[in-house]
Amino acid sequence: MHLKFCTAAVVILGISVAGAQVASHAPTTVKAATSAKAPAPTTQVTGKPVARVNGVELSDRDLLRQMYTIFPYGRQHGGIPKDIEPTIRKGALDMIIFEELLFQEAKRRGLTIPPAQIAKAEKDFRKQFPSASVFQQYMAIEHNNSKQSLARMVRRSLLIERMLKTEVTNRAVVTPAESKAYYTKNPAQFLQQETIHIQSISILPPDTSADVLQEARKRAEEAAKVAKAAKSYREFGLLAEKMSDDDYRVNMGDHKPVAPDKLPPEIVKAARNMKPGDVSDLIQLGNAYTIFRLQAHTMPGKIAYADAKAKLESDLHQEKIQKIRAALGNKLRKNAKVEVL
């Protein structure tokens, strides 16, 4: 189940709950809160309706929750940036309308959720709150301390999720035959260039005086000795953070995969003769020294279907989901009265 508590709910503290004609419309995918403290909402919440779906009103409270679901970083950065707020708002409005249409369709079909499933989902939902007091704040704001209201919200979310699974996810299955056919028909998409992925420890002398160069050589030899003993990405990375002078030290010494022409020729030559996990000998580059661990060496050519299959099927699955979901939304809207207020 994807029913989660939204930090934005706490933002609404002190604002009156909408009238009884407005249902509780908690979204189905909202990140759990970790604090009762949150930034001021970009959109002013008053409880007024922003849309009406077959007579059921959706409030700006529902809209705000969904906006923070789409852009969760807004909770940590003082709200949603003004330049992207219109786009976020439109996406959120479309989503809450779509979810209400799904819920109404589930009711029209007479779908039900067993009481035991609702109880379990409600229990799991409560566990997401950092404390009992935060949960009580949420209950007061969103449900006027009504357990029945909470149960209705949970039931609604479960029905929406059931509709999505039945009408979207289950219909978006990608078969091995489909993925293989796509792989065969689109060979250019599976060509790869040579890349080398390394972690490095670099010793960079601050000047060229004899004493400094001698000290740098000594440090480099010591670094090479301990680096050779590193057995994993993490071990080498921690050494890089501690011993390296280059900027990559802040990222475990990781350079990320790059084309060979982005690396010194000495490193490329060594890498082409190493296996993933090997650590190079000490390499001198001018007055500097480096030791690197080969994370991966990708040769140019076509990616084998077996290697591409998992990501390809995932990508095709997501593409199918988007198409089926859009078609379902259009179908449900066709016979519905949707008013954006």
Work out the number of β strands. Answer: 8
Distance between the termini: 31 Å
Weakly predicted, low-confidence segments: 5-42
Helix content: 40-55%
Assigned CATH superfamily of the largest domain: Porin chaperone SurA, peptide-binding domain
Envelope shape: elongated
Order of helices and strands: HEEHHHHHHEEHHHEEEHE
Rg over alpha carbons:
28 Å
Characterize the biggest β-sheet: 3 strands, antiparallel
Mean pLDDT: 86
**How many DSSP H or I helices?**
11
DSSP strand content: 5-15%
The structure class reads mainly alpha
Q: What is the highest CATH level, the class of the largest domain?
A: Mainly Alpha
Return the CATH topology of the largest domain: Triger factor/SurA peptide-binding fold
Question: How many structural domains are formed by the residues?
Answer: 2
Please list the strands of the largest sheet in the order they lie side by side. Answer: 2-1-8
CATH architecture of the largest domain: Orthogonal Bundle
